[in-house]
């Protein structure tokens, strides 16, 4: 039996959450090492930043590289070069939306109100209409090909994360509603969505303060 991937990060979502999602979708058990101080002290972080994942004898950093490797290893990345390009485009679109959410907890209350409105606006007018059309044109259960891929996992993560901020965000997107129900019912993802899984709660001020102390941020 191969060793469980080891995830080095703080006890929060951040950039590690998409990695947790992808490993969970693949049905991979993982070990979380939440004390990133130890990692930093021993110089294991290539660019002195997390997330870091120990997998297959490597100490991988840089979120995109980690996700790409996991997707390829666990058959969540199509082998056809063109289909991989579509997956990459769809993943990058989701990441642009998620970046708006990742900074939300760092903002002042006044800035959060503006950012919340921006998240809702961008999701409803720029990003979710695109994925609705993709599903309509593709005429399949998934975004690319006929099986679950990295792109689907990133999209369901984004949908559920935006819904935490804007619960009615999918009201005008029936195909995304169906996609959400369908993908959430996949056994590995359904398990990840249950209480007690390694899915993290939204990042709060304590998690931000902890990370800032470790990396000497003000």
List the helices and strands and how they pair.
Elements: E1 6-8, H1 17-25, E2 31-33, H2 36-41, E3 52-55, E4 58-61, H3 63-73, H4 81-102, H5 109-138, H6 150-165, H7 174-184, H8 187-192, H9 205-214
Parallel strand pairs: 1-2
Antiparallel strand pairs: 1-3, 3-4
Helix pairs in contact: 1-3, 1-6, 4-5, 4-6, 5-7, 6-7
Domain GST N-terminal: 3-78
Keywords: Transferase
InterPro entries: Glutathione-S-Trfase_C-like, Glutathione-S-Trfase_C_sf, Glutathione_S-Trfase, Glutathione_S-Trfase_N, GST_alpha, GST_C, GST_superfamily, Thioredoxin-like_sf
Distance N terminus to C terminus? 43 Å
Task: List unreliable stretches of 5+ residues.
Answer: none
Strand order in space, largest sheet: 2-1-3-4
Instruction: Give me the count of strands.
Output: 4
Report the major sheet.
Answer: 4 strands, mixed
Number of DSSP helices?
9
Broad shape: globular
Radius of gyration: 17 Å
* Estimated helix fraction: 55-70%
Task: Give the DSSP E fraction (strand runs of 2 or more residues).
Answer: 5-15%
| Structural class assignment | alpha+beta
How would you describe this structure in keywords?
218 residues; alpha+beta; four-stranded mixed β-sheet; 56% helix
Summarize the structure.
The chain is an alpha+beta fold.
What does this structure look like?
The chain is α+β, with helices and mostly antiparallel strands and 218 residues long. It is built from 9 helices and 4 strands; from the N terminus they run βαβαββααααααα. It has a 4-stranded mixed sheet, with helices on one face. A hairpin with a 2-residue loop joins β3 (52-55) and β4 (58-61). α1 packs parallel to α3 and α1 crosses α6. The longest helix has 30 residues, at 109-138. The radius of gyration is 17 Å and the shape is globular. The termini are far apart. Residues 3-78 form the GST N-terminal domain. Residues 80-203 form the GST C-terminal domain.
């Amino acid at each position: 039996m191969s060793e469980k991937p080891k995830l080095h990060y703080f006890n929060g979502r951040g950039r590690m959450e998409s990695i947790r999602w992808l490993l969970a979708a693949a049905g991979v058990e993982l070990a979380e090492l939440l004390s990133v101080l130890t990692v930093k002290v021993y110089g294991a972080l290539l660019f002195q930043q997390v997330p870091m994942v120990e997998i297959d004898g490597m100490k991988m950093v840089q979120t995109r590289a980690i996700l790409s490797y996991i997707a390829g290893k666990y058959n969540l990345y199509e082998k056809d070069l063109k289909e991989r390009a579509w997956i990459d485009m769809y993943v990058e679109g989701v990441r642009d939306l998620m970046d708006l959410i990742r900074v939300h907890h760092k903002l002042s209350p006044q800035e959060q109100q503006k950012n919340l409105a921006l998240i809702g606006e961008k999701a409803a007018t720029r990003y979710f209409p695109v994925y609705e059309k993709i599903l309509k044109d593709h005429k399949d259960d998934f975004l690319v090909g006929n099986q679950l891929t990295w792109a689907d996992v990133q999209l369901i993560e984004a949908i559920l994360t935006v819904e935490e901020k804007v619960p009615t965000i999918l009201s005008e997107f029936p195909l995304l509603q169906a996609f959400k129900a369908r993908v959430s019912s996949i056994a590995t993802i359904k398990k990840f969505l249950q209480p007690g899984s390694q899915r993290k709660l939204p990042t709060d001020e304590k998690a931000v303060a902890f990370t800032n102390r470790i990396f000497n941020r003000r």
